[in-house]
Specification:
Blueprint (H helix, E strand, L loop, with lengths): L2 E4 L8 E2 L19 H13 L3 E2 L4 H10 L4 E8 L2 E8 L2 E8 L4 E8 L6 H10 L4 E10 L2 E10 L2 E7 L5 E7 L1
Antiparallel strand pairs: 1-11, 2-9, 3-4, 4-5, 5-6, 6-7, 7-8, 8-9, 9-10, 10-11
């Protein structure tokens, strides 16, 4: 499969947007100790390194329990001093990244296509006619929100990124 990537600064900065998590709980605050570029670098370093399953640092683990009290089936890994937690809340998949000091860098969670903002869904259908929405995620970094919309048509898979107002941010295409 040929892969073409057109991402705009890791699809960030996003447009700020007030939003509620699926359980109507106030979303946890993402750190402001880093710039968006620094967070992108930390997350990239996590993926470029060799991650291994671990227990989180005391700081990251403690902050996680406060940020996501309803988390179940939590699995932690670390790479390049960045911790990733994979977990479920109310049968939705989540991922969250923390630094060793317990700063929440970024998180994302699954969202059904029906829960996407109308502007996002409309723009995705307009930009990719004939594609079917396979799934979607809400991505939070800082005070910003973005949506990743996974689309499929025959042998082509596209991950398109949008701000809450439907502004196209970038895409990744797998042929």
């Amino acid at each position: 499969m040929k892969k073409i990537t057109v991402l705009l600064a890791a699809i960030i900065p996003f447009t700020a947007c007030a939003e509620r998590a699926p359980q109507a709980k106030v979303l946890p605050a993402v750190t402001t100790a880093y710039t968006d570029v620094q967070i992108d670098s930390l997350i990239s370093a996590f993926y470029l390194g060799q991650d291994k399953d671990v227990r989180p640092s005391q700081e990251a683990g403690s902050r996680f329990l406060n940020d996501f009290p309803g988390a179940a089936e939590v699995e932690w890994s670390v790479s390049n001093n960045v911790y990733e937690a994979d977990f479920d809340i109310a049968r939705l998949d989540y991922e969250a990244w923390y630094d060793a000091s317990g700063n929440l860098l970024m998180y994302k969670y699954d969202v059904s296509a029906s829960k996407l903002p109308a502007a996002v869904k409309s723009q995705a259908k307009q930009k990719y006619p004939g594609y079917r929405i396979e799934g979607a995620e809400t991505i939070r970094k800082g005070t910003a929100t973005a949506y990743k919309v996974s689309l499929e048509k025959k042998e082509t898979d596209i991950e398109a990124y949008y701000s809450p107002d439907g502004t196209f941010l970038g895409e990744q295409i797998d042929w």
